[in-house]
Amino acid sequence: MKNLLFALPFFLFAFSCSEPESAVVTTVNIKGERIPKINIDAVPFELHQIGISELISDYKVIPLETKKECLVSNTRIACYDNMLLIGTQHFPDPAPVYQFDMDGRFIKEIGKAGNGPGEHNNYLVSSIQILPEKRLIKINFGTQIQLFDYNGEYIEEIEQPYDFMGDAFYLSDGKWFSPGSAAGPPNYARDSVIIVIHDMEGSIMHKIPRLIYPTGIGYTPTSWRPSVYRYNDNWNLYMPGLDTIFSMYNTELEVATILDLGQKRQAYNKTIDPFKVPGTYRFSIILENTNHWLINGSEITEAEIREYKPGFWSGIYNTREELLIINKKGDKSKRVELIDDLFGLADTRMINSLSQTMDNNKIIYSLQSFKIKQQLSEMLDSDELDPDVKKRLTDLDKLITEDNNPVVFIYYLKDKFDLY
């Protein structure tokens, strides 16, 4: 099946207007091929609280070594094998990235502050990606994307064709792709493309244009961040505004899965009343494997939206996070809210916002040591604490002080979830 993106607008419109179906997973015929279709409204609405232990096969707790040359506050984390990379902030100074081993021992800093080659002056680490097949590390320092080898040595900077594109992803030798936008007004050049294939210097090799734009004057939801993940050795892409999961093959997008996001979905590329935004959902595709899709549903519970200049809108949102676990056979699915049943330390909202914490089929997050110590002082005094949880907390309490660097928690997901 070749690139079907250009045939999709009317197809997607037809399915977005259809009545909800009773089966969560059905199939549709596209040019002679049966393509799975996920019907969000068919997922049972009951929300189940489940422990994170039910989704994982193993976990690791890593107190980070504390030295003056590797002080860590908030974190952006990636890990692979024995490499643990931690991006943090030292505002107003440029953001550093530190390498630790999987026992938390500090190894080195990657990247340097400054304005020369191999240096950066941004105060934010937007993303870190380890490319094991090429033995490379890609770090997005806000507006600068830099490439390093496994020893942390700078190679070169990755330029993007348009401003404000966000992240770039490795496609093949000499080729990278950067997602654009599929929703909201076209305020910038990046808003007129779905993806751009480019080289390291930012020269465009191929691009897929955006075809659907909002009509009318007034507020229209802007694109939430795209979901970009690996499945079957290919990049998969979901962009809000296109109710489709695509797979990248060479430089083209092929339809992998159709999404019917239901009656409460965000109304992208339509002019709507901003007062009707609360109660609607934004979705991210967190994970796909042989057995399941794992989808983050973010319900907007409160929204203050205003037009700060003609045609430009901004908003402050409160959200409630949930996960949809969908069996690919279509016979089983569940809405869940994860809870930290192993330690009882993690905020429920955080561990359900997996679009922020998922990395290579692992849930990874950090907690500040001073906050953990405060929680432990209360929890360990409780007579109602589960004995297994108490042992884990007691062991952790012995490893850290309030002045230590954060503690990293890594949860390794199962290939199959037995939740039904």
Named CATH architecture: 7 Propeller
What number of structural domains do the residues give?
1
Gyration radius over CA: 22 Å
Globally, the shape reads globular
Please tell me the overall pLDDT. 90
Biggest pleated sheet: 6 strands, mixed
Beginning-to-end CA distance, first to last residue: 34 Å
- Report the helical percentage: 10-25%
Please mark out the parts with pLDDT under 50 across 5 or more consecutive residues, or reply none.
9-20
CATH class: Mainly Beta
- What fraction of residues sit in β-strands? 35-45%
Enumerate the strands of the largest sheet in spatial order, edge to edge or round the barrel.
Answer: 1-2-22-21-20-19
Kindly state the number of beta strands.
29
How many helical stretches? 5
Class derived from helix and strand content: mainly beta
CATH topology: Methylamine Dehydrogenase, Chain H
Keywords:
single chain, about 425 residues, mainly beta, 6-stranded mixed beta sheet, about 10% helix
Would you give an account of this structure?
The chain is mainly beta. It has a single domain, classed as Methylamine Dehydrogenase, Chain H. Helices cover 10% and strands 43% of the residues. It contains five helices and 29 strands. The strands form seven sheets. The chain has a six-stranded mixed β-sheet with strand order 1-2-22-21-20-19, with helices on one face. Helix 4 crosses helix 5. The longest helix is centred in the C-terminal third of the chain and has 13 residues. About 3% of the residues have low confidence.
